[in-house]
UniProtKB/TrEMBL annotation:
Organism (species): Candidatus Methylocalor cossyra
EC number: 2.3.2.2, 3.4.19.13
Pathway annotation from the record: Sulfur metabolism; glutathione metabolism
InterPro entries on file: GGT_bact (IPR051792), GGT_CS (IPR055262), GGT_lsub (IPR043138), GGT_peptidase (IPR000101), GGT_ssub_C (IPR043137), Ntn_hydrolases_N (IPR029055)
NCBIfam families hit by this protein: g_glut_trans
Biased composition (Basic residues): 599-608
Keyword list, A-Z: Acyltransferase, Glutathione biosynthesis, Hydrolase, Transferase, Zymogen
Recorded family membership: Belongs to the gamma-glutamyltransferase family.
Higher taxonomy: Bacteria, Pseudomonadati, Pseudomonadota, Gammaproteobacteria, Methylococcales
Gene name in the database record: ggt
Official protein name in the record: Glutathione hydrolase proenzyme
SUPFAM superfamilies, sorted: N-terminal nucleophile aminohydrolases (Ntn hydrolases)
The keyword Ligase is annotated on this UniProt entry: no
Annotated stretches, region: Disordered: 579-608
Length: 608
């Protein structure tokens, strides 16, 4: 993509240059050795304050969004399990520890890189539309989308895939018995854990929805109907029973037997669409990943039904020819190039992408260098014009639903997985007696062509609802390799922002050569074509950068991105893990080389 250099650009470059000099002088005066990091909003925590969010190791690295979940994964490795055992234990533990984000009633994606074969396997355990679902499911007879129907209550739920997915992967590649990988999650559900700030916030925000369904109320609200607060003990005995049944019976313990009976009875009672055929017919798909390159690096990411991998490759293809290295990450010109590439990828998503088991998608073309070259000739010198669209509205702030974890071992095996129930506590429906939340993934379909979903993303009929189809996703577990070896593995929650956050972190690390922590902590921005906003997280761009972007026609808004990137880098024989400092995750290595520990971090599991 070549941007026309107008006289305005020279003025901009001059302004940016003066700003950098000023920042450098001020920073030198205040003792900051890396002035440019401050200018672009880098978190500048000292090493000691980073404990928990950054770790180093040689034997393993585990980065998840839950303290107990990271420990569950480590327990597997300590017992002689492999990365898949650790990933399975983390998945089930996260289903307990982050019931607002993921769970047995959800689905997800996983990439596994095996060092000996160099093979990467993409596992798709995305939820599917029930067989009785129809294209106009969420429209009234006049063809208007009925607000809330695809996000709240029983019909928002698609057929869950998480249990089938994790057990399929574990069955194929795990070394430890199924019972062992489920043991930490069963323990955590039964004993309970202290509610942490993000969970308390999610419980409070969704208390009204949870009150509507008796099992949700009994699981997540106290006897007086108020949500659990920070520091209080949340126990999930019904969920413990379900997990135990899965430990005993495998997939049959979820897709058949008493758990399935409870789910189906509730579907009948509340007029849901999921049937026994849907549960028995659920299929995990092992797929070939999406591949691309960025300079010397190979990009390996999630294929359809995720839009994430295709969009990421397209964004990086568009940026490869740009002089980003010379401009630096904070230059208005860089931000313009990146935002233009982001928009192009979302425009292509809207037009072309959908579940390719159902519709034809030109994946090879969209991810080709030739397409990026052709686009570069005509990408705009200015921001795109605002769109007048039905339902075009500002993006809602993201609450950090969904979850991602990355695990690596000393042999170079890596697992990167994003799992979700979509919104906070999904549909708000909990299966009675079984203690898990049903997703609201049906909202990721296009309820009507051009109508934005919960994340403001628009799509066309390619992503229309059809029986058994998987809704398009943004979740993008990603791996970067060089000479066949993993260099960086990462992923994030945050709906459509997942893709742009991953692109930014990858650019920060690979292109701008920032240390991993800074690459993750750096200021984030996002543009998804519709709505026509260039979103930047607080505190926002430097004032002169914002002015320069506004002069180019961008509508710049300050808003949290919600991304919580969980990344592992392989740096020589050192594994380097970073759990986004914006979140509450835990990076666990075996402290190699040893770091001072912060005694303030409390153990989440109370003693018996
Ligand atoms: O699959 C998707 O793209 C969404 N269901 C993911 C939702 C999500 O990341 C929400 N997180 N903040």
């Amino acid at each position: 993509m070549r941007l026309k250099r107008s006289p305005g650009w020279r003025a901009l470059a001059g302004m940016a240059g003066r700003a950098l000099v000023l920042v450098a002088v001020l920073a030198a005066a205040f003792g900051c050795s890396v002035p440019f990091l401050r200018e672009v909003g880098y978190a500048t925590l000292a090493q000691g304050e980073r404990n928990g969010h950054e770790a180093f190791g040689r034997d393993y690295m585990i980065v998840t969004q839950g303290e107990a979940s990271s420990r569950a994964a480590r327990e597997m490795l300590e017992r002689g399990g492999n990365v898949v055992d650790a990933a399975a234990a983390a998945s089930f533990a996260l289903a307990v520890e982050r019931p607002q984000s993921t769970g047995l009633g959800g689905g997800g994606f996983m990439l596994i890189h095996w060092a000996t074969s160099g093979e990467v396997i993409a596992v798709d355990f995305r939820e599917t539309a029930p067989r009785r679902a129809t294209e106009a499911l969420f429209q009234d007879p006049a063809g208007r989308v009925i607000p809330g129907l695809s996000t709240e209550g029983i019909r928002a739920a698609a057929v869950p895939g998480l249990v089938a997915g994790i057990l399929a992967v574990h069955g194929r590649y795990g070394k430890l018995p199924r019972r062992d990988v489920l043991a930490p999650s069963i323990r955590l559900a039964r004993r309970g854990f202290r509610v942490y700030p993000h969970l308390a916030q999610a419980l409070l925000a969704r208390a009204q929805a949870l009150r509507r369904f008796p099992a949700a109320r009994a699981t997540f609200l106290k006897a007086d109907g108020t949500p659990y607060r920070e520091g209080e003990l949340l126990r999930q005995p019904d969920l413990a029973r379900t997990l135990e049944t899965i430990a005993e019976r495998g997939t049959a313990g979820f897709y058949a037997g008493w758990v399935a009976d409870a789910l189906l009875a509730q579907q009948r009672e509340l007029n849901g669409l999921i049937t026994r055929d849907d549960l028995e017919g659920y299929q995990v798909r092992f797929r070939a990943p999406v591949l691309g390159t960025y300079r010397d690096y190979q990009i390996v990411s999630m294929p359809l039904p995720s839009a994430g991998g295709i969009q990421l490759v397209e964004i990086l293809n568009l940026l490869e020819a740009q002089p980003l290295g010379r401009l630096g990450p904070s230059a208005a010109e860089t931000i313009h190039s990146v935002a233009a590439a982001m928009q192009q990828s979302f425009a292509d998503r809207a037009r072309y992408l959908g579940d390719d088991d159902f519709v034809r998608v030109p994946v090879a073309g969209l991810t080709s260098k030739a397409y990026a070259r052709a686009l570069s000739q005509r990408l705009p010198a200015r921001a795109r014009k605002p769109w007048e669209l039905e339902g075009d509205r500002p993006l809602p702030p993201e609450g950090g639903e969904t979850t991602h974890f990355t695990i690596a071992d000393r042999w170079g095996n890596v697992v990167s997985s994003t799992q979700t129930i979509n919104g906070w506590f999904g549909s708000g429906v909990v299966v009675p007696g079984a203690g898990f939340v049903l997703n609201n993934e049906m909202d990721d379909f296009s309820a009507k062509p051009g109508m934005p979903n919960k994340f403001g993303v628009v799509s066309d009929r390619q992503n229309a609802i059809a029986p058994g189809k998987r809704p398009l996703s943004s979740m993008a577990p990603t791996l970067v390799r060089k000479n066949g070896r993993p260099v960086l593995a990462l992923g994030s929650p945050a709906g459509s922002r997942i893709i742009t956050c991953i692109a930014l972190v990858a650019l920060n690390y690979l292109q701008f050569q920032l240390p991993l922590y800074e690459a993750v902590a750096a200021l984030r921005y996002h543009h998804q074509w519709r709505p026509d906003e260039l979103e930047v997280e607080p505190p926002g761009f430097a004032p002169e950068t914002a002015r320069a972007l506004e002069a180019l026609g961008y509508r710049v808004v300050n808003r949290d991105s919600g991304c919580k990137v969980q990344a592992v880098a392989v740096e020589g024989d050192r594994l380097h893990g970073v759990s986004d400092p914006r979140g509450e995750g835990l990076a666990l290595g075996e402290d190699w080389p040893p770091l001072a520990r912060d005694p303030r971090r409390r153990a989440p599991i109370p003693p018996d």
